């Protein structure tokens, strides 16, 4: 995570970088950086990056796009929170009567947070019972008169994360349950409530115009109808998880969800991508345990998909030096040499190449894990989890216990059979009564990258969902000159601001 002081602000340097070529080429690409509005819940969006050519920011998202309308209650979950920035970037938050901030700050940053928060806001740092854990999940729960907006994303609540980085965000709105609806068999709902329960915030009572006096605890979030959810939640919470709990969290949760899924035969033995912004201290045993989880699932002929070969997408020193922030971007890719330069990792390193979304120079803070074949995607996870045992958990005691240090949250996109496309919105008046766009028949979703060249007309029974995967797929392996970024080395070749690294000393 970023341990940086505020990174160099982006200046006109940017306009000379990432220029997009001819205007014809721009026109062709204007729709290509993100999904269209009517399929939004089925996919995710990239965040806007300031100073890039306009085509790179079509269909992207900013914080006021998400936090808007008549919010009655907001739960903001994050690691780093800059209150001054947040209230400036999103002034409508000042009007929200009840705000709970779940954070990971301590020391001087926490003191500053307490001083700068509005009086009616509640701060809570979830318990971290195991050393070296963090509260790392990036999410928002926004309660409206019409329902709830659930947001899962990858950005800290700080300026550089929402302006200078490659980031991702998923959101979907859900209506309040009807009074006689007591169903609790929705996977998304149970996963959300289990996760929230682990945060142990002090319950508080509020009066909501739609629900009267209610206690705001984990169970409160059962009051919404998540039956149209388009993703599965994959969370991590700290602890030594045993028995049935072992399959609830971390990579074992991902394994258990994938085991229930059936994929096209083309994904048998197909490769994996791990893309993230901080690398833990890893060993080959754990890498194979992790690959085993991410390779779970059956093909449609009943056979197991089998272990996929992973590649790691990670910026090179040259990528960081030439980025829109220069070397300062490297403070948010905080991995030391001892973790990065292990021999066994060498075969995995692949380039951060993001030309098709104009983000080669916007360093990744997004974290994604996926299984693919060409431009076809078996499944895709957008998450706060970096590649570390702390985030994903490590099996112990002869595989009977999963030890996790941190809180993390991600959303898993899977092929689905849809009767309808969810259209419900808490803020768009024209869509507040329109629960779903009925399709009239069952349609299977097919996940692809933005660069997929297939024919959508060819198979009318499939809804093609284009995921704005921000890097080249298949990834390009490092060349002989490429050096993976590590933040505790000295770099004397000057960046775009004329700086060397480290900047001090």
Automatic annotation (TrEMBL):
It holds the Pfam family Tyr-DNA_phospho. Gene3D superfamilies: Endonuclease Chain A. The active site is at 136 (nucleophile), 365 (proton donor/acceptor). CDD domains: PLDc_Tdp1_1. Keywords: DNA damage, DNA repair, Exonuclease, Hydrolase, Nuclease, Nucleus. Residues 1-16 have a biased composition (Low complexity). Its main location: nucleus. It is found in: Nucleus. The keyword Nucleus applies. Substrate binds at residues 138, 367. One of its GO terms (molecular function) is double-stranded DNA binding. This is Tyrosyl-DNA phosphodiesterase 1.
């Amino acid at each position: 995570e970023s341990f940086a002081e505020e990174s160099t602000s982006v200046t006109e340097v940017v306009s000379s970088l990432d220029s997009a070529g001819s205007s014809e080429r721009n026109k062709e690409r204007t729709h290509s950086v993100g999904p269209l509005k009517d399929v939004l819940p089925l996919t995710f969006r990239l965040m806007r990056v300031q100073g890039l050519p306009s085509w790179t920011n079509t269909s992207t998202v900013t914080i006021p796009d998400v936090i808007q309308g008549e919010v009655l209650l907001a739960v903001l979950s994050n690691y780093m929170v800059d209150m001054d920035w947040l209230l400036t970037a999103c002034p409508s938050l000042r009007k929200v009567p009840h705000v709970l901030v779940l954070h990971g700050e301590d020391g001087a940053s926490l003191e500053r947070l307490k001083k700068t928060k509005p009086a009616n806001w509640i701060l809570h740092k979830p318990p971290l019972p195991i050393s070296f854990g963090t509260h790392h999940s990036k999410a928002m729960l926004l309660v409206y008169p019409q329902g709830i907006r659930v947001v899962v994303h990858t950005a800290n609540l700080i300026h550089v994360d929402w302006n200078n980085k490659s980031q991702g965000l998923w959101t979907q709105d859900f209506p309040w349950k009807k009074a006689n609806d007591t169903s609790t068999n929705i996977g998304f709902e149970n996963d959300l409530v289990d996760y929230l329960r682990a945060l142990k915030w002090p319950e508080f009572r509020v009066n909501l115009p739609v629900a009267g006096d209610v206690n705001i605890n984990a169970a409160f979030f059962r009051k919404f109808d998540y039956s149209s959810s388009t993703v599965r939640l994959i969370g991590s919470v700290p602890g030594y998880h045993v028995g049935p709990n072992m399959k609830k969290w971390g990579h074992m949760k991902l394994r258990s969800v994938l085991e229930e899924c059936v994929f096209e035969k083309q994904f048998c033995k197909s490769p994996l991508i791990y893309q993230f912004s901080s690398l833990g201290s890893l060993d080959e045993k754990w890498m194979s345990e992790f690959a085993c989880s991410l390779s779970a699932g059956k093909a449609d002929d009943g056979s197991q998909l089998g272990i996929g070969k992973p590649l790691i997408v990670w910026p090179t020193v040259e990528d960081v030096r030439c980025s829109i922030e220069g070397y300062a971007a490297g403070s948010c890719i905080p991995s030391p040499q001892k973790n990065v330069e292990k021999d066994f990792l060498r075969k995995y390193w692949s380039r951060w190449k993001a030309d098709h979304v104009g983000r080669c120079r916007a360093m990744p803070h997004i974290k994604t894990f996926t299984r693919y074949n060409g431009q076809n995607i078996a499944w895709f996870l957008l998450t706060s989890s970096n590649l570390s045992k702390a985030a994903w958990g490590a099996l112990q005691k002869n595989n009977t216990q999963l030890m996790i240090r941190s809180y993390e949250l991600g959303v898993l996109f899977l092929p689905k059979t849809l009767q309808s496309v969810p259209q419900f919105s808490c803020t768009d008046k024209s869509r507040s009564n329109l629960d779903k766009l009925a399709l009239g028949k069952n349609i299977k979703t097919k996940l692809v990258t933005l660069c997929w060249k297939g024919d959508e007309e060819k198979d009318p029974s499939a809804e093609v969902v284009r995921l704005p995967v921000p890097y080249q797929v298949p990834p390009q392996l490092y060349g002989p000159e490429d050096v993976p970024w590590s933040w505790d080395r000295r770099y004397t070749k000057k960046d775009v601001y004329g700086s060397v690294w480290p900047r001090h000393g």
